[in-house]
Design a protein that fits this description.
The chain is an alpha+beta fold and 125 residues long. It has 2 helices and 8 strands. The chain is globular, with a radius of gyration of 14 Å.
Length: 125
């Protein structure tokens, strides 16, 4: 059975999609950009601060669905420039220091609202 996950502690979807969907103990979190859910805006301009906001948004959705970062099995990271990779990794390892999930990192031409980073996440119970 499919369960739609939504929380006001993460940014509302900016298109026709759900923040997350849970199916059979698998949680699929839509790509999160660094929008502050209180203001509805991207408030930072550097990759480290944007990555921190993205992880706060992911955490809010994980918690709402009853998961933790320990349940995450796959991350797909989209960054605006590969030169951001080292700084992104410094933030990433704060959230995944042991038994890290599988990950892909892809440099893209552009992200929604001019974000520098977007991360989609899959978690399993």
């Amino acid at each position: 059975m499919k369960r739609i996950i939504s929380t006001p502690k993460a940014p509302a979807a900016i298109g026709p999609y759900s923040q997350a969907v849970e199916v059979n103990g698998n949680l699929y979190i839509s790509g999160q950009v660094p929008i502050n859910p209180l203001s509805g805006k991207i408030e930072t301009t550097n990759i480290s601060a944007q990555a921190e906001q993205v992880f706060k948004n992911i955490e809010a959705i994980l918690v709402e669905a009853g998961y933790t970062f320990g349940n995450v099995v796959k991350s797909t990271v989209f960054i605006a420039d590969m030169s951001y990779f080292p700084e992104l990794n410094e933030v990433y390892k704060k959230y995944y220091s042991e038994n890290c999930p599988a990950r892909s990192t892809i440099a893209v031409k552009g992200l929604p609202l001019g974000a520098l980073v977007e991360i989609e996440t899959i978690a399993v119970k």
